[in-house]
Amino acid sequence: MTAPVAEIAVSLDCPAWVEALPDIEARVQSLAILALSGSPEDVPEGPLELSVVLADDKTVQALNRDWRGKDAPTNVLSFAALDDEDAPLVEGAPLLLGDVILAWETVSAEAEASGRPLADHFSHLVIHGVLHLLGFDHLDEEEAAEMEGLETRLLATLGISDPYQDEDDQQ
After folding, report:
1. Which residues, including other chains, have CB under 8 Å from residue 84's CB and lie 6 or more apart?
2. Which H helix or E strand runs over 34?
3. 144-159: per-residue pLDDT in tens?
4. In terms of C-beta density within 10 A (0-12 exposed, 13-18 middle, 19 or more buried), how is residue 111 classed?
5. For strand 48-55 and strand 95-103, is the pairing parallel, antiparallel, or unpaired?
6. Where is 103: in which H helix or E strand?
7. pLDDT recorded at residue 14
8. Which label site among 21, 83, 130, 163 has the fewest CB atoms less than 10 Å from its CB?
9. What are the Cα distances from residue 46, in Å, to 58, 88, 97, 110?
10. Which residues are annotated as a binding site for Zn(2+)?
11. Considering the domain 6-170, what is its CATH architecture?
């Protein structure tokens, strides 16, 4: 399987990310490519572009409030450019997939509460966010099963256990 050609911009808006995961920029790059490679039939042809913003809860809470009407932080937000029918398409330019934004405090607290390594939880959420940019969702059981199954398969290639199985075991 050939990896898609993608420009992945990583913004480090919260220094705690680098302190906890010193290789985070390279990690984001490889995780995004893995997510894009996992379901080739869902990836548009040609060069792609996306951004991953490593932010804090305050930033994510403001975005969640302004764009989703939910005044609380969340672990990851995805803003898919492909959802915007008015998004400009420039011939020869990379296709903009959108933005994935992660919240440091929420992600790190979730990892600690679940007993999962931060790197594993982070990997899951980057893959999850990028899959949202490709149109995957979990609004109903069938969509959720497809998305979660793909996430689980991709994480397994990294030696990371099924995060959804772990949730079921804790209930």
Report:
1. none
2. helix 24-37
3. 999 999 999 999 999 9
4. buried
5. parallel
6. strand 95-103
7. 97
8. 83
9. 35, 16, 12, 36
10. 128, 132, 138
11. 3-Layer(aba) Sandwich (3.40)
Q: Please state, in angstroms and rounded to a whole number, the distance separating the CA atoms of residues 148 and 73.
A: 22
Looking at residue 65, its amino acid is R
Amino acid, res. 136:
F
Query: Token pair of 83, please?
Result: 């959802």
Tell me 41's DSSP state: G
Closest CA to 8 of 35, 38, 34, 28: 28
Mean pLDDT in residue range 149-171:
83
- The binding site comprises 128, 132, 138
pLDDT of residue 170: 43
Report the residue count for the chain: 171
Element (H, E) at 60: helix 57-68
Residue spans of the domains in the chain: they are 6-170
